[in-house]
Design a protein that fits this description.
It is a single chain. This protein is mainly alpha-helical. The chain has one domain: Farnesyl Diphosphate Synthase (Orthogonal Bundle), CATH 1.10.600.10. It contains 14 helices and 2 strands.
Length: 303
């Protein structure tokens, strides 16, 4: 994302806002874990998108700061609880909250973060507040649904590609889409434009890239002949002494079944859909270009 210098400026301002708006004190064991997870860094992509979209629609990015904060707080809340569910020891290379403190702290601090996220909307005028919180609730419940699908899929060997894509959409895309739509709402964009930017966010925010191993696997299962399919399922079910042989064997099946090309096609079609949607926006061409370039950068994390 190196070409986007303006994004660094958003990030600096956002981090400043984050610091001043989250100076919580007592009880220490509730608020320290919240500070800790918020300070772990990350790209801050979602809040930056809220600020950027507000500006592209002619609004003031400063007015979008609290909504951006709500998005970031929610995102980090979901990470704290996901890490508990996955029993993950590390997050961004550092100890996870429930490991550093304990399970109860992770649960309660996460709960508090979800509530704090909602509080950040309270400074907006009633009409805007209503739109933002409705969108936020819808998104939050979809993220929970996505997480449940993900858990369910771990014990199923018959997951279809449409089901898998829906899971990815709910777990990752809807929050990116909502982050962008919030910027548009705050900038008083038309309902139609707000909906278009939401669709755009959904197309480019779907982390097929980050989940491409599973996507490739499902495509290969779909495309490979029966014998190869059974071989692939077997390879995925074993933990061999030498993992690299498994990796090589799986790679060979991916290539030979055409799954790699199919996955590239899928990403291309997502990118195309996203850009088709942009054409309908009623904003300056230069601003559409920014979104287009941004979408390309997100989509081109290579397969």
């Amino acid at each position: 994302m190196g070409d986007f210098k303006f994004m660094d400026q958003y990030k600096v301002k956002f981090l400043d806002h984050l610091k001043t708006r989250t100076e919580y004190t007592e009880p220490k064991n509730l608020y320290e874990p919240i500070r800790y997870i918020l300070d772990l860094g990350g790209k801050r992509l979602r809040p930056i998108l809220t600020l950027m979209t507000a500006e592209l629609f002619g609004g003031d990015p400063d007015e979008a700061m609290d909504a951006a904060l709500a998005i970031e707080m929610f995102h980090n809340f979901s990470l704290v609880h996901d890490d508990i569910m996955d029993d993950a020891p590390l997050r961004r290379g550092r100890t996870t909250v429930h490991e550093k403190w304990d399970l109860n702290t992770g649960i309660l601090s996460g709960d508090a973060m979800l509530i704090l996220a909602y509080q950040f909307f309270e400074g907006y005028p009633p009409e805007t507040f209503k739109k933002l919180t409705s969108l936020f609730s819808k998104t939050a419940i979809e993220v929970c649904e996505g997480q449940q699908y993900d858990v369910d899929f771990e014990t199923r060997d018959d997951v279809t590609i449409p089901e898998y894509l829906k899971m990815i959409e709910y777990k990752t895309s809807v929050l990116v889409a909502a982050a962008m739509k919030m910027g548009a709402i705050i900038a008083n964009a038309s309902d139609k434009d707000a909906e278009i930017i939401y669709d755009f966010g959904k197309q480019v925010g779907g982390d097929i890239m980050e989940n491409k191993k599973t996507f490739l696997y499902l495509k290969a299962l779909q495309a490979a002949p029966k014998q190869r399919r059974e071989g692939l399922m077997h390879l995925y079910s074993i933990k061999p002494e030498n993992p690299s042989t498994k990796v090589e064997a799986v790679k060979a099946i991916f290539m030979e079944s055409g799954a790699v090309d199919l996955t590239k096609e899928e990403i291309k079609s997502h990118t195309q859909k996203a850009f088709d949607v942009l054409g309908q926006l009623t904003i300056a061409e230069a601003n559409k270009q920014v979104l287009r370039k941004f979408g390309e950068a997100l989509m081109e994390r290579t397969v």
